[in-house]
Amino acid sequence: MVGRHGVDRPVQHPSGAKPLRSVLRWSLRECPVCAPTPAHRPREVDPSSIFTPVYFLLTFSGFLTYAATVLLAYFDSERLKRDGVVRPFHWAWSFLSGAVYVIGRSVIVAKVAPGRGLAPIWVLIGVLCLSFVVTTVKMSALMSSMIESIPM
Question: What is the pTM of this model?
Fold first, then answer.
């Protein structure tokens, strides 16, 4: 069906149709949260010792997380097409960020199925707020320990 401005309007699902919920969208949202982080923090950093196995493990796991985000966005977009969404948010937006895809997908699903689809945005906001608080606390502790170590 063609809506205003010649743009395809998504087909509204009848009340008995499949819900537009997917495990993929939650997996996609939580990919960056599940990325490994180093458990220890060295006391002194030698510039020549940056290329350790832990460094390469973390770098490689970052690339794997990025690839998993793009792959899950692709599968989620295909699932939405199978569920009857005429023009789902394109999966390639996940190359910018998983958050971009989550926001765009949620907006499209909210238009197709009013009253649904905004939960991933709220989870995204909650995770971002929590990570901001945790980062602030950790950086405050790090800065206070650095200031204490300055000789007077």
Answer: 0.63
